Amino acid sequence: DIQMTQSPSSLSASVGDRVTITCRASQSISTYLNWYQQKPGKAPKLLIYAASSLQSGVPSRFSGSGSGTDFTLTISSLQPEDFATYYCQQSYTAQFTFGPGTKVDI
Amino acid sequence: EEQLVESGGALVQPGGSLRLTCAAAGFIISDHYMDWVRQAPGKGLEWVGRSRNKFKGYTTEYVASVKGRFTISRDDSKNSLYLQMDSLKSEDTAVYYCARVYGGKGNAFDIWGQGTMVTVSS
């Protein structure tokens, strides 16, 4: 199985900050890497697919990059509605796996 | 509007069984791979299993921890996906989500249901 790690596990930031979250795969997954945002009590929401493609309706302050084993999610200017937990997920193998999540709070 | 709605979550005793339903609206599930994902209280997301589309013969995959106990099936006439859970354990306690796999988007989960809670406890 492919293991996914994320760093940091949590971070504190302010509105307007630039935030970067890193995700690493235990083996190469090409660009089969997706990012989700989850708020308490809600289902996850797709933000970025295929490492760098912005899902329709997602604000352009979200961006993704990377390939192979190392990936990054960047929020260029943190907004109040962005405080949430973010998960990466590999879709390279038949058995998908998620990272442990990064909680972004104030 | 494309959406998924789960139902069937409940409190069940260890060793018991439960069937979850995921009803789709706004799209035809037979065209898509459909997955189940769960989230234990206060924990992260865990992929549970998949039902491939009609073009792939509706074949299934499961995470090792549920293989042999959980079964995913579909009823195309009802545009619904099911998760039959047998021999339930306390560690199966979680919110269960169904999600659509979108092949054109790197196999990402582009649509999620709202989730249904399964509690396994005596």
Question: Which features does this protein show?
Answer:
heterodimer, A: mainly beta, four-stranded antiparallel sheet, 11 strands, B: 122 residues, mainly beta
Secondary-structure topology with pairs:
The complex is a heterodimer of chains A (106) and B (122).
Chain A: E1 4-7, E2 10-12, E3 19-25, E4 33-38, E5 45-49, E6 53-54, E7 62-67, E8 70-75, E9 85-90, E10 97-98, E11 102-105
Parallel strand pairs in A: 2-11
Antiparallel strand pairs in A: 1-3, 3-8, 4-5, 4-9, 5-6, 7-8, 9-10, 9-11
Chain B: E1 3-7, E2 11-12, E3 18-25, E4 33-39, E5 45-51, E6 60-62, E7 70-75, E8 80-85, E9 94-102, E10 108-112, E11 116-120
Parallel strand pairs in B: 2-11
Antiparallel strand pairs in B: 1-3, 3-8, 4-5, 4-9, 5-6, 7-8, 9-10, 9-11
Structural summary, described in words:
Chain A is mostly beta strands and 106 residues long. Chain A contains no helices and eleven strands. Chain A has strands at 4-7, 10-12, 19-25, 33-38, 45-49, 53-54, 62-67, 70-75, 85-90, 97-98, 102-105. In chain A, the strands form two sheets. In chain A, strands 2, 4, 5, 6, 9, 10 and 11 form a seven-stranded mixed beta sheet that branches. Chain A has a four-stranded antiparallel beta sheet with strand order 1-3-8-7, with no helix packed on it. The radius of gyration of chain A is 13 Å and the shape is globular. Chain B is an all-beta fold. In chain B, strands 2, 4, 5, 6, 9, 10 and 11 form a seven-stranded mixed beta sheet that branches. In chain B, 40% of the residues are buried. Chain B has strands at 3-7, 11-12, 18-25, 33-39, 45-51, 60-62, 70-75, 80-85, 94-102, 108-112, 116-120. Chain B contains no helices and eleven strands.
